[in-house]
């Protein structure tokens, strides 16, 4: 069995796609209508994707406080400077629980915690 994608609802598909493309660095794999009031976008180059679902009928997005998506970066320090330059607040970090890893968190446009991690 392999992990295919992580799905979550978003308030604004354009804003969310922009965040995952420009900040996280994922490419848009495909985007399509899924009914009269719903649109879906898949992002990512590898086997595992991020699926964004935007429905005009859904007014609230409920993001769990204990859930985050982690993305590996070459340098936490460079990524922190990049997100600050884009006007994105650092939620927490940098954190280095051991000498082999360092990470920090931001929030996406929907309030989902995004972790950028450097394996050292």
TrEMBL record:
Q: Name one Pfam family in it.
A: Glyoxalase
Keywords (alphabetical) are: Lyase
Please tell me which top-level EC class this enzyme sits in: lyase
Q: Does the keyword Cytoplasm apply?
A: no
Q: EC number(s)?
A: 4.4.1.5
In this protein, which residues make up the domain named VOC? Answer: 2-119
Q: Does the keyword Lyase apply?
A: yes
- From which domain of life does this come? Bacteria
Q: Which GO terms describe its molecular function?
A: lactoylglutathione lyase activity
This protein is called Lactoylglutathione lyase
Q: What is the lineage of its organism?
A: Bacteria, Bacillati, Bacillota, Clostridia, Eubacteriales
């Amino acid at each position: 069995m392999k992990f295919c994608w992580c799905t979550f609802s978003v308030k604004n598909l354009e804003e969310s796609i922009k965040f995952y493309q420009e900040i996280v660095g994922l490419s848009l794999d495909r985007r399509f209508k899924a009914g009269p009031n719903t649109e879906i976008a898949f992002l990512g180059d590898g086997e595992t994707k991020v699926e964004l679902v935007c429905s005009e009928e859904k007014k609230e997005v409920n993001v769990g406080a204990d859930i985050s998506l982690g993305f590996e970066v070459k340098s936490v320090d460079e990524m922190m400077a990049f997100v600050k330059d884009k006007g994105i607040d650092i939620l927490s970090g940098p954190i280095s629980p051991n000498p082999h890893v360092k990470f920090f968190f931001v929030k996406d446009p929907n309030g989902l915690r995004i972790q950028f991690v450097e394996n050292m």
